[in-house]
Amino acid sequence: MANPFVHVELGTNDLPKARAFYGKLFDWTFEDMPMDNGTYTMIKVGEGTGGGMMTNPMPNAPSAWLAYVLVDDVAAATKKAKALGATVMKDVSEVKGMGSFSILVDPTGAMIALWEAKPHSGG
Questions:
Q1: Residue 57, Cβ neighbours under 10 Å: how many?
Q2: 3-state DSSP helix/strand/coil percent for the chain, to nearest 5?
Q3: Alpha-carbon distance 116 to 123, whole Å?
Q4: What tens digit of pLDDT does each residue of 38-61 get?
Q5: Is the Cβ–Cβ distance between 43 and 28 less than 8 Å?
Q6: CB 12 within 8 A of CB 56
Q7: Bridge partners of residue 104, in order along the sequence
């Protein structure tokens, strides 16, 4: 598959409750990472696509999962999606040291995110 799903993220209105629920349900382990505006909780699933969770960045929005799709060029893919009828909810934004993403709503109303990983320097 040329553009696989690479990350799933929960924006929740009750992070401690979500952590407790998913930790017990799936035996997931978590690792907190500091962000500029709070904490991001990485979900360690062992194998397969991992994810994360955080306090919902959109006040009064319902808790929801968001899938990220890998692209080669997030700016170009975001522009193409917009030309195809998507609404850009969050324009291209950098995650320091990791890559860049955008968040879109497709023409049917479904939300999806695009992810461009930062190239790793070989060594």
A1: 11
A2: 20, 45, 35
A3: 21
A4: 889 999 988 889 999 999 887 788
A5: yes
A6: yes
A7: 88, 112
